[in-house]
Specification:
Order of helices and strands: EHEHEEHEHHHEHEHHHEEHHEHHEE
Largest sheet: 6 strands, mixed
Number of strands: 12
Helix content: 40-55%
Number of helices: 14
Distance between the termini: 23 Å
Structural class: alpha/beta
Strand content: 15-25%
Shape: flat
Strand order of the largest sheet: 2-4-1-5-6-7
Oligomer: single chain
Length: 367
Amino acid sequence: MGFSCGIIGLPNVGKSTLFNALTSTMSAQAANYPFCTIAPNVGMVAVPDERLHTLARLGRSAKAVATHIGFVDVAGLIRGASRGEGLGNQFLSHIRRCDAVAHVLRCFDDENVSHVEGSVDPLRDAETVETELMLADLDNLEQRAGPLAKKARAGDTEAKAQIAVIEPILEILRSGQPARVINFDNPDYVARQRQLFLLTAKPMMYICNVEENAASTGNAYTERVFLRAKLEKLSAICIAAAVEAEIVQFQDITEKEAFLTMLNPMETGLSRLVKSGYHLLDLITFFTVGPKETRAWTVRRGASAIEAAGVIHSDFKKGFIRAATIPYKDFLACNGEQGAREAGKVRLEGRNYVVTDGDIIHFLFSH
């Protein structure tokens, strides 16, 4: 289990180039004209985690299996997309299925690359896209609200519960703010809001697509974006999508590391994007280690042992007995599972144990 992240933005800002780099493919056609991407491109990307191979070595595993993230690259959004302009309706339906949104903003000047608005202005672009998403959510909820209000007045309990969630969100949207700014205290309201699949309720990060020499330092454009992100309590990162596309072409590891060293920092955009994504969705990783394989698994922070068991297989969850757990640092310090057992570092935890990032877990279950 990982998470699905929709890559959005205006046409020609570098979405498909970023997608190609992230998925190490050139399957998404990247060209200098709007609507180059017509059908959504979906790619599964392995989550880089240095702990995985360390554990595989200590566990003498035959192979190491990473957890994955799904990236969805969709057609560029333009003004009027919420009303079906361009490929708006298709675009919006694909994004509703994603867990999070990565909003790519053009933060570089290049006279050879056209801009749909005629000039480079990432804040204007951000507002254009956000407005279209809010208008789509507003239209969606207004269509639901009318019939539900009638049922609620007639005494329908379920309709009353739904309208109690929809009405405050409508108020927020009409004020020109995204649905994510509302924080319900009632867990039932939170669950119901999630079931609405609102575009502006999804966790979002800004990706500033910059030129090569600004990949680590940023530029005047990114300064403005980072300030906006801070005010909105969102995360933002800089990525030179064209450079990332170059990096994935390196077959020789030594050459790739030399290239990264020259760029500074020695980390790919994928790695930074994944870390931001994990932080965005509050995800953590736990591991299973055995002779056949060491595998990484992803759960949301706060997940219980029985939830983690269900991520591996439904039978693990149904027949859950207990979870033999070793913290990552203890597994390393004791040079593996046997050493951890001898040192008394293996804990037997029940179904309600809250999984910690880096836990190595062996689930005991009845068939």
